[in-house]
Design a protein that fits this description.
Elements (H helix, E strand, L loop, with lengths): L2 H27 L7 E3 L2 E4 H23 L12 H26 L7 E3 L2 E5 H30 L6
Antiparallel strand pairs: 1-2, 3-4
Helix pairs in contact: 1-2, 1-3, 1-4, 3-4
């Protein structure tokens, strides 16, 4: 599989699974909230979002294994400010997203409230959506850069 296609499938696998796990946690702890929207910028029911995430992740897993026999290819880490920034964005935006997901389960009323007292915008729900999207975009860029660098140097991917 080529770099961008494989990278996109890997991101779909990971973020689809993460989205489904969030909805599964809502189903366990706040079943009455499954039919509510994820957040205002994403007017999609949680249960629909969870089903779509599960399907996307499962299809990505199948496609990755069909093409190479593995779901994830280990690539050599690149050094430099761009890759360091991308890894930081992946990790820290996912941490914020995980916190806001847990908060939406334990304190669902705060999802529509402002994120911080410093400004009225964005809300917690909007921030969660943005963080999830930013982490997916950064992971896609990181995986694509690593795949492109491996091809340029002739390095073989590790399984």
């Amino acid at each position: 599989m080529r770099g961008l296609r494989r990278s996109a499938l890997e991101v779909a696998l990971v973020h689809g699974l993460l989205g489904w796990l969030y909805v599964a946690a809502v189903a366990v702890f706040r079943l009455q909230d499954l039919a509510l929207s994820i957040a205002s910028p994403l007017p999609l029911r949680r249960d629909t979002f969870g089903a779509c995430c599960f399907l996307v992740s499962a299809l990505a897993s199948f496609a990755l294994q069909l093409g190479t026999g593995t779901m994830w290819v280990r690539r050599e880490r690149r050094r430099g400010p761009v890759d360091a920034a991308l890894r930081t964005i992946v990790v820290y935006t996912l941490l914020v997203w995980a916190y806001l997901c847990a908060n939406s389960i334990t304190h669902p009323v705060t999802t529509a409230r402002q994120l911080t007292h410093f400004t009225d915008f964005p809300t917690e729900g909007t921030t969660a959506v943005w963080c999830f999207a930013a982490s997916a975009a950064a992971l896609l860029a990181l995986r694509t850069r690593a795949a492109t660098a491996g091809r340029a140097t002739g390095a073989l991917p590790h399984g």
